[in-house]
Amino acid sequence: MSAMTMLVTGGAGFIGSNFVHMVAQRYPDTRLLVLDALTYAGNADNLKGAGNQVELVKGSVADAGLVDKLCQEADTIVHFAAESHNDNSLRDPSPFVETNLVGTFTLLEAVRRHDKRFHHISTDEVFGDLAIDDPAKFTETTAYNPSSPYSATKAGSDHLVRAWVRSFGVRATISNCSNNYGPYQHIEKFIPRQITNLLTGRPAKLYGTGEQVRDWIHVDDHNDAVLAILERGRIGETYNIGADGEHSNKDVIELICELMGGTYEHVADRPGHDQRYAMDATKLTDELGWKPRYTDLREGLEQTITWYRENEAWWRDAKDAVEQGYAAHGQ
Ligand SMILES: NC(=O)c1ccc[n+]([C@@H]2O[C@H](COP(=O)([O-])OP(=O)(O)OC[C@H]3O[C@@H](n4cnc5c(N)ncnc54)[C@H](O)[C@@H]3O)[C@@H](O)[C@H]2O)c1
After folding, report:
1. pTM greater than 0.85
2. Residue pLDDT, tens place only, 168-206
3. How far is residue 279's CA from residue 8's CA, in Å, rounded to a whole number?
4. N or C: which end of the chain has fewer CB within 10 A?
């Protein structure tokens, strides 16, 4: 991995920027080219302190000319860029189609032309959801059954990657990961929204009864698994990433309230809210010997709460607008 050029798309977003920091630290000889459109979810400041091996290029993954040039320069491409917020996809699906589908197609074509190693970041949401009382977990062979425009476009992008592997011999891997939390996550998302609500004197907000279950993983564990796949994964394979972190939304909010000394209130549920996600990461752990570091949600949340406390300047300006947006939908 050292002394190479890695193109990281979406590297100014939540998971991508944490990935850039991790790679910069572990591989000081790796040049990191970040391609990011800097949408509302991207922030150039997320890359501050990552070192001068990082270069940010502002542009879209759907811009074929730019993507071709950057893929030519890179040895490996790690594709995080996406429109990533379910609620937004219900209001306006079009950027989801453009970035998640057309963008992935554009990258695959460039990767094919220049014969580069490609890793595609995807989500457990492609599998749809499980009933709350169903003991099953998603595996790599679970049938796709996406619920929202977000998950449908991510599912479509996974299919494109598999087709380019099979039809054109592209050297690609895919990972589908469960729900991430940690530093640099946009405050529209569930955990940072609750933390910043409490930090601004608002109550935390629980959708509906809060019985829905999510499988939480710390962002550093997700990115560590991506590096394991890049280093040791088999070309053409898909790996589920998860850390056995199943908790109901109610349990998570109650833990945040306990750790921060706050209260919560119930708000309108999301339309079509998925009930339960749960990832079986046995293939990743058995085949690549990967293990998560954060196995205790309390410890991961404490670290995350401290980060939001210490980095108020990073999120403060966006807070009122995000809450007004939610309030307009009774949330
Ligand atoms: N957040 C999660 O819990 C989670 C879980 C599993 C998988 N994922 C996947 O991980 C990836 C990153 O998610 P995230 O939570 O960091 O999202 P994010 O919304 O925080 O970041 C997305 C980044 O992509 C950039 N972007 C958007 N459109 C672009 C375009 N057309 N061209 C270039 N850049 C563009 C944005 O500016 C932003 O920096 C996504 O592919 C997502 O599907 C996320």
Report:
1. yes
2. 999 999 999 999 999 999 999 999 999 999 999 999 999
3. 25
4. N
